[in-house]
Amino acid sequence: MTKLRICFMGTPEFSATVLEGLIANPDYEVVLCVSQPDKPVGRKKIITPPPAKVVAMNSGIEMYQPDSMRTDEAFDTIKNCNPDLIVTAAYGKILPQRVLDIPKYGCLNVHASLLPKYRGAAPIQYSIINGDEKTGVTIMKMDAGMDTGDIIVQDDIVIEPNITTVGLTEQLAVIGRDLLLDMMPKWVSGELKSIKQNEEDVTLSPPIRNDQGEFTWDMSAIEIHNLVRALEAWPGASTIMDGNKLKIYETRVVDFDASTIDFEPVSGQIVKAKKGDLIVKCKEGYIAILSLQQTGGKRLNAIDCAHNYKVGKILGV
């Protein structure tokens, strides 16, 4: 039996997991991997290949990293690899119609949300920020819009109350990989049909901004907790303490008995600071800070620094 020729397009860790699944399947031959260009990473700005590229190169798969998919060169490169199917997973660029028209079985996209909810670049982060109880993966038939194509199959998952974007991404990547490998033979054979998205239910998830993690304690404990775990990897959640940035990396929503203190706490006020417990009053509820970093300092766990803070102090503005 002739292997199905796949052109894979993807960039981050989510993509790498899906690509590994395709490579390991004997029914498919990944003939080309398309990723975004290498980018500087970390404080030293070291030029680093994206995770999908690393997987492809380790497997001897030809790589292509164009700045744009709208050039004649990009079109010719895809066409010349003669793919039966294009599969994308968090590639990061919209494909023009003439590229979508190349493969005979069309183009499939593995998207980390239950479309039409969270079209766009950051569906996982927004599902956590908004406190959603569940999310999932959609395999869609691509068109020239941003995640606007017809839905083929979906699978959902419960969002754990303390999971971060990194952890949820790992879970969804595995679900997406398995869902793709299960549906592809049925799609190629014509067993599966796609359905249009309900435009009335569309929500968007635009790219996360660098300042999006900034918060004040005049928010509920759950809102702050969701922001922290959604943006832990980048850009991080932060507030202002004594005129300087205070980054918060890990939190938990906790119950606190206010009768154990001799004052009526206000938003941002520390109510407990000992034995690893650093608990702060929010507009609604209380939050325990488990990991934090002051400007110019190192990231510390509360168990190592809670004793340096004073009960009653306003932690931020």
Give a description of the structure.
The chain has 317 residues and is α/β, with parallel strands linked by helices. 25% of the residues lie in helices and 28% in strands. The strands form 4 sheets. It has a 7-stranded mixed beta sheet with strand order 5-2-1-6-7-9-10. Strands 12, 13, 14, 15, 16 and 17 form a 6-stranded antiparallel beta sheet that branches. Strands 3-4 form a two-stranded antiparallel sheet. Strand 9 (134-141) and strand 10 (150-158) form a beta hairpin. The chain is elongated. It starts with a strand and ends in a 12-residue tail after the last helix. The mean pLDDT is 96.
Count of DSSP-assigned helices: 8
Q: Classify the beta-strand content into a percent band.
A: 25-35%
The number of distinct β-strands equals: 17
* Strands ordered across the widest β-sheet: 5-2-1-6-7-9-10
Mean pLDDT: 96
Radius of gyration over C-alpha positions, nearest whole angstrom: 23 Å
Distance between the termini: 66 Å
Q: Main β-sheet: number of strands, strand sense, barrel status?
A: 7 strands, mixed
Order of helices and strands: EHEEEHEHEHEEHEEHEHEEEEEEH
- Alpha-beta classification: alpha/beta
Overall helicity: 10-25%
- As residue ranges, the low-confidence spans are none
- Label the overall shape: elongated
Question: Gist?
Answer:
By secondary structure, the chain is α/β, with parallel strands linked by helices. It has helices spanning 13-24, 51-58, 72-80, 97-100, 123-129, 165-189, 221-230, 302-305; strands spanning 4-10, 28-34, 39-41, 46-48, 63-64, 85-89, 107-111, 119-120, 134-141, 150-158, 204-205, 237-241, 244-254, 270-274, 277-281, 286-294, 300-301.
